[in-house]
Write a structure and sequence with these properties.
Elements: H1 6-28, E1 32-41, E2 52-56, E3 62-67, E4 73-80, E5 82-89, E6 96-103, E7 109-115, E8 136-139, E9 142-146, H2 158-162, E10 168-171, E11 174-177, E12 180-186, E13 189-190, H3 195-203, E14 210-216, E15 229-235, E16 242-253, E17 257-269, E18 272-294, E19 299-323, E20 328-353, E21 359-372, E22 375-383, E23 390-414, E24 419-429, E25 432-447, E26 450-473, E27 476-479, E28 485-504, E29 508-525, E30 530-550, E31 553-564, E32 575-579, E33 582-585, E34 593-604, E35 608-627, E36 633-655, E37 660-674, E38 683-700, E39 703-712, E40 715-717, E41 720-722, E42 725-736, E43 741-748, E44 756-762, E45 765-773, E46 777-787
Parallel strand pairs: 1-7, 12-15, 33-36
Antiparallel strand pairs: 1-4, 2-3, 2-5, 5-6, 8-9, 9-14, 10-11, 11-12, 12-13, 14-15, 16-17, 16-46, 17-18, 18-19, 18-45, 19-20, 20-21, 20-22, 21-23, 22-23, 23-24, 23-25, 24-26, 25-26, 26-27, 26-28, 28-29, 29-30, 30-31, 31-34, 32-33, 34-35, 35-36, 36-37, 37-38, 38-39, 39-42, 40-41, 41-44, 42-43, ...
């Protein structure tokens, strides 16, 4: 991709800005009027509070809604000139309809409505009580997971729950959805973490503190262009007046004991809403990874890397929302985590020869790590009028700091077991820090010709990685200049977007979006004073066509262009020692990958979805393994020429009985990666499938249960060929104390079958891996809700910024 000079960006941004203001100016020329009135009972003349007042345009599309107050009065402000239909609904009453209301923008309009009772016998009335929301809901172009409804959340964490979402799997340490990369947000805010750090952070976030998880398969241009889909984790906040909260305590067991404590408090009074939470989780987990490298016909290297990690995770949040007026809210939100960890690693390596003597080595690593990740958001949200004109302003600041220390001792043995050379002792200090600042403005403008959405965003990221290594020589630690390095990296992103949405004849909806992003990067290898600057500009169009044949049958066609930027740690050129046969290293010459995704879906009754997608990726960013000196393997990242991914998927939710509901999802597809380079020709391709079932059982009297199965077939990813994964989980819950308390018991990976086998054949390197992460756990939690039980008049504002991104900084 050819870099574009800074001056080339200015006319593009000026053109987008002019278009935004011209559109705003044209629509602003329309004069507006106010509609108001009173809704009463036709017999008694008493006011009807909480009646729903709907204003529809000539196409019978809803323009806005209002609710009558305790005196039965409603008010709709800033109505543009045109003809409308006014509909008033109240439970048990006939609908009031006032058609052909002509608004000329010069005078206010007042309507008094008298509603009559519906003609019905008591025997005609059927009362349905909904005990709980379903765990998985498909609506509005998104998938929602309601975690409170799942017994499997017992003692679990956010990462484990994500892996149960339909179509979401982990691949090479990264989350993907329907073969597309994902952008993970917390309350609509960026996490700014690498795959490994994101996994650590989500693993330390208790599932009990999450309200719901939303998946957007095809986000519009309003969202950041990074990744193919969006996953938004929405933390739990109460919607009740006064002081209330939740307390959860849990314990569990895998190979090791684990426990957690969670407390959340919420307070709402008048214009002020306060909320906060603190979560502590302690766990211990093992990782057992085996590999075989075929060096040549006579030589191979076997390794077993057994690691035990101990984590003490502290996560917290504190927020306040203040209603400046009925239409505007100012919010401040502080969240973060401080996590402490220890790790003990034992690596056994054997170099086997068919002709020479074999040698082995034993590398013992003991390390400590501390992560801190405070983040602060300041937001202003305003509903400018009742027609849907809104303004949202967000300012964000985030810091990420890591302190990592390892002591590594390697012993070398000959075939007979005797040491053939002195032990090699290393220690390191690997601090790293990230600072991120961002500012965004989002504006929604409905008009007679359609709805417009505009937004701009600026983001500034600075990272500093300082690797300090020392070697023990004659009982004295001295600096190892071959490994010590310092690398600084800066990335500035300037983005703007425009969306246009229009519905025709109640059946056809068109959404057109365009996002522009300018990226400036500077890499500085301080050790050698090497500076590398880059600048690239991209346009990301988005087109969505929807045809609603009727309320139960909807067709959708979507095209979206997106970018997957390389991780901030990926460009770090350090050579990191793991053992004598394993190193890792960054690639400062890496380029971002560009994805073009085409997708078609059909939805029936919001319960059955079938679709097909095709993604063509240029310069795919993938992890690779290369041969090093002395039979060592170097893990790094590189760009492949291209990748083509074809996928057919489905999701079906239906009740089997009154007490048993199942969700079946999955798909099949062909995945092909072109692994060729100037000196190497190759490809990696395979057919794959995914089968998932989520079964929920409601037995009455507060008893619920769940049983899930996941089966993923062979898979191709970059240079990796992955074998089948199969796992099952189950859980049961019981409501107590008049639904104010609950107890949950879960069993994860019941048969301990979840492990990953990988085969690699790339640039004359043949490598087989057998990786097992501890996944078999039993967890027990108890939750108690306390405080006021009355619902408040309006929910606490969720953060509105959705055009955010997952950035990687390790």
């Amino acid at each position: 991709m050819e870099p574009i000079k800074d001056n080339d960006l200015k006319p593009k941004l000026m053109l987008a800005t002019c278009f935004m203001f011209i559109t705003n100016l044209l629509t602003a020329q329309t004069k507006n009027s106010n509609l108001s009135g009173t809704v009463v009972d036709s017999l008694s003349g008493k006011p009807l509070p909480n009646a729903t007042v709907t204003l529809k345009n000539r196409d019978e599309l809803t323009v806005t809604k209002a609710i009558t107050n305790t005196k039965g009065i409603f008010s709709i402000n800033q109505v543009a000139a045109g003809k409308y239909t006014l509909v008033i609904d109240y439970i048990g009453y006939k609908s009031f309809v006032k058609p052909q209301i002509a608004v000329d923008g010069s005078n206010p309009y007042t309507f008094d409505a008298s509603l009559s009772l519906q003609d019905m016998l008591l025997s005609d009335v059927k009362v349905t009580v909904r005990v709980s929301k379903p765990f998985i809901v498909f609506s509005g172009g998104k998938i929602t997971l309601n975690l409170a409804q799942s017994p499997l959340t017992a003692g679990s964490d956010a990462y484990s729950v994500l892996l149960r979402a339909p179509g979401v799997v982990e691949l090479n340490g990264s989350l993907i959805f329907r073969n597309k990369s994902v952008n993970v947000l917390i309350d609509g805010k960026p996490t700014h973490l690498s795959d490994d750090e994101l996994r650590n952070m989500l693993s330390s976030l208790p599932a009990n503190g999450i309200d719901r998880i939303e998946i957007l398969p095809n986000p519009s241009a309003k969202y950041d262009a990074s990744a193919g889909s969006v996953i938004n984790i929405i933390l739990a906040k109460s919607k009740r007046d006064g002081l209330n909260g939740n307390f959860t305590t849990g314990t569990g067991m895998g190979k090791y004991f684990r426990y957690s404590e969670d407390l959340s408090l919420n307070y709402h009074s008048g214009a002020v809403s306060l909320y906060g939470s603190y979560d502590y989780m302690h766990n211990k987990q093992y990782y057992d990874n085996k590999s075989e490298q075929i060096v040549d016909a006579q030589t191979s290297v076997f390794q077993r890397n057994y690691e035990v990690r101990t984590r003490s995770n502290n996560s917290y949040q504190l927020g306040v929302d203040y209603d400046i007026s009925k239409k505007s809210t100012l919010g401040a939100h502080f969240r973060g985590y401080t996590n402490y960890g220890k790790r003990s690693v034992q690596n056994n390596s054997a170099l086997l020869h068919s002709t020479d003597s074999d040698t082995t080595s034993l590398a013992n690593t003991n390390g400590k790590v501390k992560f801190t990740n405070p983040a602060f958001n300041l937001s202003f949200d305003s509903k400018i009028d009742s027609l849907g004109q809104t303004l949202s302003i967000n300012a964000d600041y985030l810091r990420f700091n890591k302190s990592w220390n390892d002591n590594i001792v390697t012993d070398y043995f000959a075939a007979g077991g005797q040491e053939y050379m002195p032990a090699y002792s290393l220690r390191n200090n690997l601090p790293s820090g990230v600072k991120n600042y961002s500012f965004s403005v989002d504006y929604t403008l409905p008009s007679k010709i359609g709805k417009f959405e505009y937004g701009v965003r600026s983001q500034f990221t600075n990272t500093d990685n300082d690797a300090q290594w020392q070697t023990l020589v004659d009982n004295e630690w001295i600096n190892d200049s071959t490994k010590t390095n310092r690398f600084k990296y800066k990335e500035n992103i300037y983005a703007g977007y425009i969306n246009y949405t229009k519905t025709f004849n109640l059946k056809y909806t068109v959404t057109l979006g365009l996002r522009a992003e300018e990226t400036e990067t500077t890499g500085n290898l301080v050790t050698t004073d090497q500076v590398d600057k880059r600048n690239y500009f991209n346009l990301f169009p988005n087109v969505n066509l929807e045809y609603a044949q009727n309320i139960n049958s909807v067709f959708n066609l979507n095209y979206r262009r997106s970018i997957d930027r390389f991780g901030l740690s990926v460009v770090n050129p350090f050579l990191i020692y793991q053992n004598q046969y394993a190193y890792s290293q960054g690639n400062p010459n890496i380029r971002p990958q560009i994805n073009n995704n085409y997708e078609f879906t059909y939805t029936f009754k919001k319960a059955f979805i079938i679709g097909t997608s095709y993604t063509h990726t240029v310069s795919a960013v993938v992890p690779v393994y290369l041969k090093g000196d002395n039979d060592a393997v170097i893990s790094t990242f590189d760009n492949l020429k291209y990748a083509d991914l074809f996928y057919v998927y489905y999701d079906l939710t239906f009740p089997i009985t009154k007490w048993w509901t199942t969700d079946m999802s999955g798909g099949t597809g062909f995945l092909k990666y072109n692994t060729s380079s100037s000196a190497y020709s190759g490809k990696n391709a395979t057919w794959s499938y995914l089968l998932q079932t989520e079964n929920t059982f409601h037995f009455g009297k507060g008893w619920n249960a769940e049983f899930n199965v996941l089966d993923r077939g062979p898979y191709a990813s970059g240079i990796y060929k992955l074998e089948t994964i199969f796992t099952t989980s189950t859980g049961i819950s019981k409501s107590l104390a008049n639904n104010n308390a609950s107890i949950k018991l879960s069993f994860l990976d019941i048969f301990n079958t979840e492990k990953q086998k990988i085969h690699i054949d790339y640039k004359n390197l043949v490598l087989n891996q057998d990786n097992k992460t501890e996944t078999q756990f039993v967890n027990l939690t108890f939750t108690y809700k306390f405080g006021n039980k009355n619902l408040k008049s309006k929910p606490i504002n969720q953060p509105k910024t959705a055009d955010t991104e997952r950035r990687l900084n390790n």
